[in-house]
Design goal:
Blueprint (H helix, E strand, L loop, with lengths): L1 H10 L22 H4 L23 H5 L6 E3 L2 E2 L4 H11 L5 H9 L8 E4 L4 H7 L3 H13 L2 E2 L4 E3 L11 H7 L4 E3 L7 E9 L3 H12 L4 E9 L7
Parallel strand pairs: 1-8, 2-8, 3-4, 3-7, 7-8
Antiparallel strand pairs: 5-6
C-alpha cells in the first residue's frame, strides 16, 4: 500500500519518538520506549476464549460448559489503553505504520503458529468506502513475523451488514447470519483467523463454522485485542 510505504519512509527520516509518550528513542528500529513497552506485557488469560483471568488456564468455567468453536485465542491485551486508541488510529486515522510493530509483538505470544492465516473479510462495498482491510494488513505482517502463509480471498463476505458496534451478542449473531462464504477448501488442517478486535466472537464463530464443515481440525484466533467480558453484555 502506497500510504504505508510513505509513512514508513517519513518515519525513517524524522527523529524517532515513542509512539505513546513521545520521548526520544535510543534505537531507530524501536517504536516504544522501555517504560511504555510494559503496557504490552502478557496478563493471565483463558487460552480457549482469550478472556482475562485471575490466573492462566487452558479452559475457564464458561469454556468448560460451552466452549467456543475455535481451539485457542491469542491477543496482545484487552480493548483498552493503549491498544484501543492505536486500533482507532489505524482504522480511522490510517496510521498503518503501527501494524508491523504490533504484529511483531503479537507473534511473540503465539507458541505454535498455524501454517495458514486467514483475515476476517470485508464486504466489497465497505472495502471501497474504507480503501483497506485492517485485518488483512495485520494478517500480512503477522504471516511475515511467524514465517507462515496467508490467503486473503479464501474467506469472502457476501452480505453487507450494519456495523457490529453497539449490538448485543444475540443481535450480532443475527446480523451476521449467512454473511460469509468459503470460496475454496483450504489445504491446511490447522488454520488461524486474524482480526483486529474480538468482542463477542460472533464474527469468528461464523467463519469457524465454515471451516469446520470442510474438515479443518484446529482453529486459532489471532487478534490485537480481546474485549473484556463486561463490555459484551
Amino acid at each position: 500500500m502506497l500510504l504505508q510505504r510513505i509513512q514508513h519512509a517519513v518515519r525513517h527520516r524524522t527523529p524517532r519518538l515513542c509512539a505513546l509518550c513521545e520521548l526520544p528513542l535510543t534505537a531507530w528500529d524501536h517504536h516504544w520506549c522501555a517504560s511504555c513497552l510494559t503496557y504490552f506485557q502478557s496478563t493471565p488469560r483463558c487460552t480457549r476464549c482469550g478472556l482475562s483471568m485471575p490466573f492462566p488456564t487452558d479452559r475457564c468455567g464458561t469454556c468448560l460448559q460451552s466452549p467456543p468453536l475455535w481451539n485457542a485465542l491469542y491477543c496482545l491485551g484487552d480493548y483498552a489503553y493503549p491498544l484501543a486508541p492505536m486500533i482507532h488510529q489505524i482504522k480511522y486515522g490510517r496510521q498503518f505504520w503501527l501494524i508491523p510493530p504490533l504484529a511483531a509483538l503479537l507473534a511473540q505470544v503465539i507458541p505454535s503458529p498455524a501454517p495458514l492465516l486467514l483475515p476476517v473479510p470485508l464486504h466489497w462495498r465497505r472495502y471501497l468506502y474504507r480503501g483497506f482491510n485492517q485485518s488483512d494488513l495485520l494478517a500480512h505482517h503477522l504471516s511475515q513475523a511467524l514465517s507462515v502463509s496467508y490467503q486473503t480471498k479464501l474467506l469472502q463476505r457476501i452480505r453487507s451488514t450494519p456495523p457490529q458496534e453497539g449490538l448485543h451478542k444475540n443481535e450480532r449473531e443475527q446480523n451476521l447470519r449467512k454473511a460469509f462464504m468459503l470460496r475454496n477448501r483450504p489445504s491446511a488442517k490447522h488454520i488461524a483467523i486474524v482480526d483486529d478486535v474480538v468482542t463477542t466472537g460472533s464474527t469468528i464463530s461464523q467463519l469457524c463454522q465454515l471451516l469446520l464443515e470442510v474438515g479443518v481440525e484446529y482453529i486459532d484466533i489471532y487478534c490485537l485485542c480481546r474485549t473484556p467480558e463486561y463490555h459484551n453484555q
